[in-house]
Amino acid sequence: MRCSTVSVGASAKTDGGRPFTLTDTVGFVRHLPHQLVDAFRSTLEEAKDADLILHVVDGSDADPQAQLAAVRTVLTEIGAQNVPELVVINKIDDADPVALKAVQLHERDSVLVSARTGEGLDDLRAAIEAGLPERDRLMRVSVPYSRGDLVARAHAAGEVTRSEHGPEGTFLEARVPPELAADLRPYAVA
User: Fold this and answer.
1) Co-location of 126 and 183 in the same domain
2) CA 164 to mean position of chain CA atoms
3) What span, in angstroms and rounded, lies between the C-alpha atoms of 71 and 30?
4) Are residues 165 and 103 in the same domain?
């Protein structure tokens, strides 16, 4: 039985500059013993808090569909079945083209890559960027004093990097979630 267990976080950035953390939690095999799942449950449960699960499948394996099913069973057991998933089929340089096509038919949004040759890595980076939740936006706004609620929300839900009180209102430079950015947009300044 092959099973690697790692829990290493690495900082990375998408091509668009979006920061994210990539963590390899556990390598799976078919028929993963329940005792092993129990032993790594706390590590596995990190997956419940993920924004996106990269489900890497060995494309050269004799039965990649069984790999997918085994991992999904465990993700369901730990309550992570609703986390968005991006299937990444690796080792395409060593895989049977017919088997690859069969996996792609079942996993329509999958990405084909070869870690060895680098083939498909640009597609993978683009898929990660598209799969990550919308990030906070940098806003420069002058909020009238009558809308102090927006200033309070920016401090509570965002990261205010500059705040100045002027005669007409409060100038803020802040990173805020998309829904707050929409409310602040009428007060944007150049």
Assistant:
1) no
2) 35
3) 8
4) no
